[in-house]
């Protein structure tokens, strides 16, 4: 972790949300380790305003059917952040994205294996920054005035930036 997958994903989410008329809804769900179908259904249902007493008494299959009924009439983007294992979209109730329905499902993961299991054969890899890029980012955070005032800080700052191994969030 720490290369900025979630940060980049949030920016993409915001861009999708800004495109008026392109999508009926943009749904963001944090999956994380140990997430199950019931939790994912609950998170999606909340975004679809399906929660209530009637919702809580339904079983997973009925919840999936209701989610599917709502989403199949919409052009949606489903953004799943931090998945650790294959997410069974059908079991959750998410209709399959196709060219015809123009729906999208995007996700972040640390695992190439998860990408393959999710059917993504062209994953985009977010990499650590190169040393010079990391130094520029770090300088931007510290500020040039601070670096100019204290020449000893420059060497220390370079060591700190190096210890962060190009991980933007650590910088």
From TrEMBL:
Keywords: ATP-binding, Nucleotide-binding, Plant defense. Residues 1-146 form the NB-ARC domain. This is Disease resistance-like protein. The gene is RGA26. Pfam families: NB-ARC. GO terms for biological process: defense response. It comes from the Eukaryota. GO terms for molecular function: ADP binding; ATP binding.
């Amino acid at each position: 972790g720490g290369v900025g997958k979630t940060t980049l994903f949030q920016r993409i989410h915001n861009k999708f949300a800004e495109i008026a008329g392109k999508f009926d809804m943009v749904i963001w769900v944090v999956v994380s380790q140990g997430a199950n179908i019931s939790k994912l259904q609950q998170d999606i249902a909340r975004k679809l305003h399906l929660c209530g007493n009637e919702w809580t008494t339904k079983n997973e299959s009925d919840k999936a059917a209701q989610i599917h009924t709502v989403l199949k009439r919409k052009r949606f983007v489903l953004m799943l952040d931090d998945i650790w294992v294959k997410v069974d979209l059908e079991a959750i109730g998410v209709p399959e994205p196709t060219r015809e329905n123009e729906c999208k499902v995007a996700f972040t993961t640390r695992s190439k294996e998860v990408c393959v299991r999710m059917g993504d054969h062209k994953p985009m890899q977010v990499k650590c920054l190169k040393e010079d890029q990391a130094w520029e980012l770090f300088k931007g955070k510290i500020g040039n005035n601070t670096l100019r005032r204290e020449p000893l800080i420059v060497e220390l700052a370079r060591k700190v930036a190096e210890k962060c191994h190009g991980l933007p969030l650590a910088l």
